[in-house]
Amino acid sequence: MSTEAHTPRSVLITGGNRGIGLAIAKAFAANGDKVAVTYRTPTDLPEGILGVQADVTDEGSIDRAFSEVEAAHGPIEVLVANAGITKDTLLLRMSEDDFTSVLDTNLTGAFRVIKRASKGMIRLRKGRVILISSVSGLYGAPGQINYSASKAGLVGLARSFTRELGGRGITANVVAPGFIKTDMTAELPEETQKDYLSRVPAGRFAEPEEVADVVRWIASDEAGYISGAVIPVDGGLGMGH
Ligand SMILES: NC(=O)c1ccc[n+]([C@@H]2O[C@H](COP(=O)([O-])OP(=O)(O)OC[C@H]3O[C@@H](n4cnc5c(N)ncnc54)[C@H](OP(=O)(O)O)[C@@H]3O)[C@@H](O)[C@H]2O)c1
């Protein structure tokens, strides 16, 4: 971590009430930033973290949540689009709703929040956008055609965003976690978990804090010249992409 004096920034993480999002919120709070998270399900949050209700599939609720955070902490300087869902099943069993609902949350949800955040960032002439993708986005995974498509889409989103707004002091990067120990992966059948583990060169799964530290760093001054990058945090699972 940089030891330079740090001006607290207004940081917002979507889906920050549990899992990777909560670990990211704690990392920014420990860094001295003013941290807010969105939640759908009311949860007890650690002291000092502001919770605002929002569903990323609903533009109106996003706008209300942003306004609440702006009133409390000032314009959002760091946005982490983390909210995500899976609806895994093989292609032939996947309904159109299984596909579009995952895209609506994971990809269109990210579009909605970066669009809302970019207004304030353009005015500030600085900002950091971090999109939480997945190793599945570029590596692929059976049963995840919907999820992989949504997560690969985030790469195009970050890169076009960078080409539009990179000259205004704003960066956008993608962090692509591998297998992280959260509710999302706990739901996977034991056989699937064993199969993943056998393919991870690091020989272990990761804790949410290992993703959070990378996100905090990519939003730091030290990483100010990195934009449009895909940063894997996957123990080597997806390397080569
Ligand atoms: N765990 C892994 O191994 C892994 C690997 C690669 C990528 N990722 C990605 O990392 C991110 C976080 O994953 P996780 O493992 O921490 O998942 P998780 O424990 O299942 O948490 C998901 C979070 O997203 C929120 N969310 C879901 N749909 C939402 C919506 N429509 N509007 C607002 N919030 C919504 C959830 O809110 P509620 O509590 O209200 O449901 C929750 O806070 C996801 O984008 C996931 O795809 C995870």
Key traits:
15% strand; binds NADP nicotinamide-adenine-dinucleotide phosphate; 8 helices; 7-stranded parallel sheet; alpha/beta; Rossmann fold; globular; 241 residues; 44% helix
Topology record:
Elements: E1 10-13, H1 19-30, E2 34-39, E3 50-53, H2 59-73, E4 78-81, H3 96-124, E5 127-132, H4 135-139, H5 145-165, E6 170-177, H6 183-186, H7 190-199, H8 208-218, E7 230-233
Parallel strand pairs: 1-2, 1-4, 2-3, 4-5, 5-6, 6-7
The structure holds NADP nicotinamide-adenine-dinucleotide phosphate.
NADP nicotinamide-adenine-dinucleotide phosphate is lined by residues 14-15, 17-21, 38-41, 54-57, 82-85, 105, 132, 134, 177, 179-180, 182-185.
Task: Describe what this molecule looks like in 3D.
Residues 9-183 form the Ketoreductase domain. Keywords: Oxidoreductase. It comes from Sinomonas terricola. This protein is of the alpha/beta class and 241 residues long. It has one domain: NAD(P)-binding Rossmann-like Domain (Rossmann fold), CATH 3.40.50. It contains eight helices and seven strands; from the N terminus they run βαββαβαβααβαααβ. A seven-stranded parallel beta sheet has the order 3-2-1-4-5-6-7, with helices on both faces. α1 (19-30) links the parallel β1 and β2. α1 packs across α8 and α3 packs parallel to α5. The longest helix has 29 residues, at 96-124. It is globular, with a radius of gyration of 17 Å. The model has no long low-confidence stretch (mean pLDDT 96). Bound molecules: NADP nicotinamide-adenine-dinucleotide phosphate.
